[in-house]
Amino acid sequence: MDGSGRSDHRRRVVVAVDVAKEDFVATLLTADQEAQVTFGWRHPGGTAEVVEQLVELGAGRRLEAYGDPASVAADAERAEALLRRTGRSRLRAEKIGAVLASARRSLGVPCLAAERELLQWLAGDRLAARREVRRIERMLAGQVKQEPVLVRMAGVVGTVSAAVLVAAVGSPQSDPTASSYLKALGLNLKERSSGKHKGQLRITKRGPSLARFYLYFATLRLIAHEPVVKRWYQLKTSRPGALKNKVVIALMRKLAQAVWQIAHGSRFEVNKLFDREAVAET
Hints:
three-stranded antiparallel β-sheet, mainly alpha, single chain, two-stranded antiparallel ribbon, 56% helix
């Protein structure tokens, strides 16, 4: 498929289909038949969108890609602009400066052409995967909006986490109590005794690990963005012998109970997760 109608006439977008695997691959080629970037996808419905993206890459600007430190150091100004543009707010200025400084100081063996192409291919594949993740997230967001319970859950743990929790253990509305919901998630406590551990309470982990994985990171986000939660976390972890992961798990249990209450019509208030007087301690 030729993309010359929208971009530089010397560039082409070539689409290939692997019949055996039912995979689709599109590559942006230069006039010398050099592959500048490659996207892969599985559903034929995504073909038009991928080709459009590749045509736009060839239309408005030169495709910038760096396969080794020497290339970055030699074109530091444009490399910095590329990092700022693609990293946006998530890539801090200090990190960008560190990357550029590292490229200038690198004393490693220069990359072979094949090695450089491999690194560029891996980077392109990573970008394609990120785009696919964003597409799935948009699709999930559309589905979540159609379910009032999911909308309420998403307001606390996030859209993707809410969808994963319901997919893994079902709607919290199906559980008669918050305790039964904790049990479904494998977050209920059970005494564990062995030669090493005697009389210690630990979570059972009998529920789907994927649900706990997403709830764990939802808990970390809560710690990072909610001052009251962060204060509670700091108080708990500052105690002698405190284990940070145990504190996070304790908060996971509180958050799971809050999710159950939200699903049953309660309003989420972060202050209700803790004893406010305990959090106010200095």
